[in-house]
Amino acid sequence: GSSWNNCDFETNLCKVLPEFNLQPGWIRRNGRSGMGPPYSDHNGNDSAYFLSLSSEMQSSSAALRTSVFLPTDEEHLCQIRFHYWVSEMSRTLMVGLQKLSEDTITNIWQVSGEQRNQWNVNTITISSTEKFQVIFSGVVETQRQRESVAIDDITFSEGC
């Protein structure tokens, strides 16, 4: 619905992911970029933008961090819905939760390559008694193949 904050990456503005275009390893591109799959966004549009892992990543993982969210309550859980593409077995997409009082990131969801070469959608629900950030991390075990981890249309509910 319209009450959700949506990051569709069509522009360089995204309130909830303030620095997504500065994160090393993640690049904003479309299916016409000549960088391999995916060749369109999750709607099948080859000129629409999404984020994908760069094939020239310097390290084995790249994190994409949200702004700080307030604690959730029973009426307003934080729901995050996103489309993702992970095609190589040596690629993983993880979603983690970091409470501001802790240094560690707790992994709350992850998927590894399924060789299906298609966009999938997932919704995760977060409850936290303190302020927190959500981290999307792409992990590459080998640099052999063309990158094949992508994220599109991340929406955040009012509880975030």
UniProtKB/TrEMBL annotation:
Residue ranges of domain MAM in the record: 5-160
Name of this chain's protein: MALR1 protein
GO cellular component, as recorded: membrane
Organism: Motacilla alba (White wagtail)
Coiled-coil ranges (or none): none
